[in-house]
Amino acid sequence: MIIRCLGIASDLMLMEGVSTVEDCGDHKVIRTPSEPNFWFGNFVLFDACPDEPSAQIAAFDTAFPGAKHKLIMWDDPAMVPGAGHEVLRAKGFEIEQTDVLTLTQPLQRAPVPAGIEIRAVKTDAEWVQVIDLQTEIGIEEGHDPASHRPYVEQRFATIRGQVEAGRCAWFGAWDGDTFAGDLGIMFNDQMARYRLVETRKSHRRRGICPALLCAAYDWAIQRAPQATPIIVAMADSDAGRIYRRCGFDVHEVNVDAVLKGY
């Protein structure tokens, strides 16, 4: 299966072993049965967005009857939002443009901040700390407290299985007993994709994120020296600026349309 967008290809890599891809001719259906509320694990993928995208919405509805969300993605790394996207916007969809960054120079090394310990997450208690922080930050970003923790717990049950299988690792940063930040990375021979990078609000702007990036990079590149490191974030955001200082730059921009449900 050929996927032109590096961001989407790395998304599918992150879902290997838990998701399926069905080729329906003019589109593909990506399903993650164990995580029906994971929007970016349950979507339809087209090559282009027509001026009248009703058939694409119908394709999603056919593939996911009763879903609480709708998500359409397009496998076009040069896509610019146009008339069809405006039609989707008028129907309540959010049109999202996501920067896909790749490492375009040697990684700019970052020291571990004083008093911070970075190590791989291993124990049950440490995984609970990961879930606690990811939930806390998701609620800060506006997710419903009642539904978000179960969603995060389900997501990390999947991720923990991938870690145990050996192609993914999760790293945490501790300030004494305080869990200050975390991220994951997964690899194959071609790609090493960072995922779910988070830093506790009280510990931001202290250099924890770059130090975590370096630890995960070292782990992945030892196992896949030719893999391209990839991270998805808006290049002009606070996080994107950190990644660019580390040596990442924009490779492509991916476009999707999401009608959110909670």
Report on this structure.
With about 260 residues, the protein is α+β, with helices and mostly antiparallel strands. It folds into two domains: about 5-100, no CATH class; about 115-245, Gcn5-related N-acetyltransferase (GNAT) (Aminopeptidase, 3-Layer(aba) Sandwich). It is about 35% helix and about 30% strand. The chain has helices at about 5-15, 55-65, 85-90, 125-140, 145-165, 210-225, 240-245; strands spanning about 20-25, 25-30, 45, 70-75, 95-105, 115-120, 170-175, 180-185, 190-200, 230, 250-260. Strands 1-2-3-4-11-5-10-9-8-7-6 form an eleven-stranded mixed sheet, with helices on both faces. A hairpin with a 3-residue loop joins strand 1 (about 20-25) and strand 2. Helix 4 (about 125-140) packs across helix 5. The model has no long low-confidence stretch (mean pLDDT about 95).
Which helices and strands appear, and what pairs or packs with what?
Blueprint: H1 6-14, E1 20-23, E2 27-31, E3 43-46, H2 54-63, E4 70-74, H3 83-90, E5 94-103, E6 116-120, H4 124-140, H5 145-165, E7 168-175, E8 178-187, E9 191-199, H6 208-223, E10 228-232, H7 238-245, E11 248-259
Parallel strand pairs: 3-4, 9-10
Antiparallel strand pairs: 1-2, 2-3, 4-11, 5-10, 5-11, 6-7, 7-8, 8-9
Helix pairs in contact: 4-5
Oligomer: single chain
* CATH topology tier name of the largest domain: Aminopeptidase
Strand content: 25-35%
Mean pLDDT: 96
Cα gyration radius (Å): 18 Å
Order of helices and strands: HEEEHEHEEHHEEEHEHE
Percentage of helical residues? Answer: 25-40%
How far apart the termini lie comes to: 32 Å
